[in-house]
Amino acid sequence: MPMTRIALRQGLGPDYKARLSRLLQQALETHFAVPEGDCFQLFDEYGPEDRVFSRHYQSAGRSDHFLLLSITAGKPRSPEQKAALYQALAQQCQAELGLDPADLMVVVSYNQAGDWSFSGGLGHSLEGTR
């Protein structure tokens, strides 16, 4: 049950976002044990004045194409699952979007099942957590 906030520069257009959405969902389902159809993504577009980031911290060098994926998940994944996800995202973003891997940052965080209310004002129980 991950929810991903996708922070990107303004003006990339609906086709770019649709391709990114598809490759992100495919990577989550393949490498992060996310069930098919469990898709929650929010795109946040920012102008140059609203994006402040280090060009070189822990990176070979970020450009104006910097893309941040903030993934919140309800259950922890293994280090191997996270590594596979990071690699798949970097490879697919480069292959399908032309994004330099140095421009991709992924942050994974976790919370508890009770921190989610999917609809109807009802809390999510531990049973059936993804």
Automatic annotation (TrEMBL):
Gene3D superfamilies: Macrophage Migration Inhibitory Factor. It comes from the Bacteria. InterPro entries: Tauto_MSAD, Tautomerase/MIF_sf. Coiled coil: none annotated. This is Tautomerase. It comes from Gallaecimonas xiamenensis 3-C-1.
